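Can't attach files on this board, so I'm pasting raw text. These are the components:
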Amino acid sequence: MSNFDVLRNSVGDLWEKYIRHEFVIKMKEGTLPLDSFKYYMVQDSKYVNVMLKSLLNASSKAPLDKITNILNSIFNTRDKGLEVEKEVFRELNIDEAIINEIGYNLVNYAYTRHLYYYSSVGWEEFLAAWTPCMVGYRFIGEFVKGSPNKVYNLWASFYGSDEYGKRVEVILDSLESIKINEELKNIFKNSVNFEIFFWESALRKDPTIFK
Amino acid sequence: MSNFDVLRNSVGDLWEKYIRHEFVIKMKEGTLPLDSFKYYMVQDSKYVNVMLKSLLNASSKAPLDKITNILNSIFNTRDKGLEVEKEVFRELNIDEAIINEIGYNLVNYAYTRHLYYYSSVGWEEFLAAWTPCMVGYRFIGEFVKGSPNKVYNLWASFYGSDEYGKRVEVILDSLESIKINEELKNIFKNSVNFEIFFWESALRKDPTIFK
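---
Top answer:
Structure tokens for the assembled complex are below.
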């Protein structure tokens, strides 16, 4: 069994709750209200900034061959990701200034600080915290692709792309080289819970008071 | 105006909402249910561990004279704090093993990671994040002292003590030496909000799923 499967199995049905959340299903069916998605996109954009900073903070603690592949793969495909993001932003009438103006909701604030915390602790800990987001979005992208809603289909065109798939492969390759223990399972589980709470906070449109 | 007053004024009525929260008033009146307090004490104990680690993480970034006073004052009075905590724990039938077994609630997880995050960013940022907890508990301790409830009175006997007051003085002295800007006000405000949410999470007894 791969290390990813070990981690995924260790959280029981939480994984399915994450990648097949009501939010995701409604994206696929095209029934998700656009204002929920807009709320989500702003929070997600703030998330990605801290996530990338956390990756960089963790990078010096990683084995050089693995981190070279990961950074190479991420920065090689970042243009495509940003291009899709820009198109989605245009559809939603949001931009960098609006995103900076809006604060984090509690879940997003907690999740991003969780990532940063483990990026300071060590590479393996960060990897366990980071995997649910990176790998989960691959499954979600493939699932949502083909949505009758133009914006959700556009959004999924990146996470369901071969380029994104390559990112996931190098991350899984690095994950395969470490030894999974109880602490890493806990960190992974926290992140899966955060992903579920992230969808829920977008459906509820939680207050965004944290700057 | 002192820097502390500048920060406190910048959050408007949030400061009073924190130090005179329903939770605090019920401690003073002795009407707070003991199981709410027990829930709170477990979360607070987990909080203090990460808070102290964050202080140590930030310490190398601080001016040496200020941090020497702060660490000296905290570690000099830590025995008294631990002694009171031990007595409170005995009254509540909790111990280290129970505290380790129980997870963080979302608010506590977010708050502790917020502290750790800013302890990595810089001393001034950490100080702004840390001040609401350290200084607020001075006001709360003095207010709750004399509660008809033996346990709450015991708890307040530390935060309302001269030893604790000395901790607060050296922290305010360090705070006075920095230049307050908008970012520090934001960090301070986040922490005040976390303190309010911390009381509320204890009244609600939020799920403690984060390890």
